[in-house]
Amino acid sequence: MLTLTCPCCGVSGEETEFHAGGEAHLKRYGPGSSDNDFEGYLFMRENPKGVHFERWRHVYGCGKWFLAARCTATLEVFGTYPAQTTEPPQDIKDKITAKRPGWSWRDFA
Amino acid sequence: MSEPVSFYKGRVAKGDVTVTDAGLQGMITLRGDLSNAKVKAAVKKVAKVAVPAQRKAEVTDGRGAAWMSPDELLILVPYAEAEAAAADLSAALAGQHHLAVNVSDARAYIRVEGQGAREVLAKNAPVDLSPAAFAAKDFRRTRMGQAAAALWLDDTGAFHVVCFRSVGDYLFDLLAQSAKDGPVGVF
Ligand SMILES: [Zn+2]
After folding, report:
1. Who among B68, B72, B142 is closest to A17 (CB)?
2. A34 alpha carbon to ligand 1 midpoint, in Å?
3. Residue B65: closest CA among B85, B81, B45, B50
4. Residue B110's beta-bridge partner residues?
5. Predicted ipTM?
6. More confident residue, B187 or A37
7. CATH class of the structural domain B12-23+106-181
8. Domain(s) of CATH 3.30.1360.120: residues in chain B
9. CB contact residues (below 8 A), chain A span 35-64, against chain B
10. pLDDT digits (tens, 9 = 90+) for A77-101
11. CB–CB contact A60 B143 (8 Å)
12. How remote is the CA of residue B142 from the centroid of ligand 1, in Å?
């Protein structure tokens, strides 16, 4: 069971109060993009054992979307942060590095 | 004119912990920038309280406000005033990005009180409702059983629960059964 802290309302709740929204930090490729970029945007997802970044929605609470950094193997949550970010904040990256030295995920490390 | 009736029409489940129809209650959803001076003034005028802090409810005798999300308040007024109060909010916030809607009849409203009320609720929600973690004026949106609900605790030790009317029967029955089974002796 995951325990997530919603950065929008401050509630620390267990995962049944939230809803998972898939991978975080996707870059959208729309009309005019190459077929490869569009395919990647639509279909290509990470499936790591370890550090992962996801979108979550506090569906039974404040209703807001946010992002979470967690470990898929241990369910440890490294931190949550606002959805209005294009990459994980430095303090979240630092926390991950402290616990999983040498981690990388897509372009982030 | 039809006479307004509450969703539960006076339903009561009596016991050590009593679950009761909390009656007709005017409720207005207000969305907007809660830090904005015009919004603050409009809330003060209609709800007679300041914009509540995060996850707090300031409610006295059916009038007040509760913090729903960073951009949403639940405004409480007497049922008969709700339509006018929503219009007052909209007038006060004209030209400003906001939403004020009378949702009184979209909601079901329950009061849960008595020794052990905390546990009767806590059995159904993934929330720490111990006295140390949840005090008077605390407000929480969560899930109770399978349904979304919001609750707050008043100064008298009574809990107020709000849910969508469509799941009103479910939630009342859930809490009534939980009350009948009694507290579990954790808090
Ligand atoms: Zn939240």
Report:
1. B142
2. 37
3. B50
4. B21, B161
5. 0.92
6. A37
7. alpha beta
8. 12-23+106-181
9. 59-64
10. 999 999 999 999 999 999 999 999 9
11. yes
12. 10
